[in-house]
C-alpha cells in the first residue's frame, strides 16, 4: 500500500503492466510531460521510493537509469537526483525515410540483448565466436533458419538453409552466382533500391515489367521472359517495398507456373512476410526448384543482427551461391549469428517480433488518421506508399519536406525503368518516439495540403 504522503506522480504498479522499472520510468516521463514534475524538482532517494512502491532497490535504480537515458533526470552527487531541464535538440530531422522496425512497447531491448549474449557466452566456445566460419552458418544457425521459415513453409531441411550477412548480401551473391555480365534481371517498375545498386555494380541490366494493384502482371512477365531470356526475376511479393502491395495467392501461383514453363529463376525477397496480416504462402511453395527465398531479420527484429536466411533447395546451386558470397562477404559475424540463433530457439525472437508487429499496426492507424484520404497503406508492415497530388512532384516534395526537417524517400529512388511514378515512401519505424512520429506526419500532411512555393536560391 502506498503512503498517503507519497508524491502525486507515483505510479500504481500493475501486475500485467510490463517490467516494473519501465512502469516507474514511464510514470516519470508522463509527470514531466504534464507538468506534475518540473525541471529542478528533487526526486525521492532511491531507497525511500523503493519502500513507497514496495519494490526492491534494484528496480528503482534501473528506473532512474532508464529515466536518465531518456534525458529526464540528472544526478547532482550527494544532493540527490533532479528533474533535468529539457534537452536542446540541435538536429531536428524527423526521419521517415529509413525502413527499420519500430521499437516495441513494453520490450526492454537492453535487457533482452544482455540476456541473449549471456546465454550465448555460457553455451558457446568464445574462440569459436571469434574465428572464421565458411559454411554459410553453423548447424545450429541453419536449424534456427529452418525454424524461422517454418511459418511460411512448414518443416524444412536445415541443410537447405544458408545464413548470410543481410538480405543485400544475399541478393548480390545470387546475382553473381546465377547471372553473367550483360544479363537481364526483370523487376517491377518500382522496386527495392538495393537490387538496382547491385545489378549496376555487376554490369547486369534491369528491365521493368508492368505491375498492377496485385503486383507483377503475369502476361507481361511471360512476354518479357520470352523476349529477353532473363537471368533472374526479382520479386518482393509481400508488403512490397515501396508500394506496400501484397500479391495474392492466385497471382503467386500464376507467376510460379510461368517460372517453371519459361525455366526462369526467381529471387523472392520476402522481408515483411512475418509482419503481414495472413499473407499467402511464398511463391517458392509452388516452384521450389525455381525460386531462391530470402528472409532477413532486419525488418522483423533489428538491423544490427545483420542476419538473413536463404532457402536454396539444390546443393549444387547452394555451393555456387556460397562461392559468390565469399568473394565479398566471407561470413556472418559469428557472435551476432549466435545471438540470432539464441533468440529464435528460446522464443525471444517471437516475442520481439510480436511487439514490432503490434507497434507497426498502431503506427499505421496513426498515419491513416493523420493522412486521411491520402493514406494507401496495408495497415501493417513498416511503410506507406503515398501518391501525391498533381501540383507536387515526388522530388519537389522530398526537397520541401527536407527544408522543414522531414526526410522522406521519393519514387525516383525505387525506379527500375523510364516511367515515373509520382509518390513518396513514408517509413513509420525509424522515429523511436511516437509523439515525434505524430508531429512529423502532421507536418507532412500540412505540407501536402498546400501548393509548392516558387524555388529561389539563397544568396549569402
Automatic annotation (TrEMBL):
Name of the protein: PLP-dependent aminotransferase family protein
SUPFAM superfamilies for this protein: PLP-dependent transferases, Winged helix' DNA-binding domain
UniProt KW Transferase keyword: yes
Keywords carried by this UniProt record: Aminotransferase, DNA-binding, Pyridoxal phosphate, Transcription, Transcription regulation, Transferase
InterPro entries named in the record: Aminotransferase_I/II_large, HTH_trans_reg/aminotransferase, PyrdxlP-dep_Trfase, PyrdxlP-dep_Trfase_major, PyrdxlP-dep_Trfase_small, Tscrpt_reg_HTH_GntR, WH-like_DNA-bd_sf, WH_DNA-bd_sf
Family in the record: In the C-terminal section; belongs to the class-I pyridoxal-phosphate-dependent aminotransferase family.
UniProt domain HTH gntR-type: residue ranges: 18-86
Top-rank taxon: Bacteria
Organism: Comamonas terrigena
GO MF term list: DNA binding; DNA-binding transcription factor activity; pyridoxal phosphate binding; transaminase activity
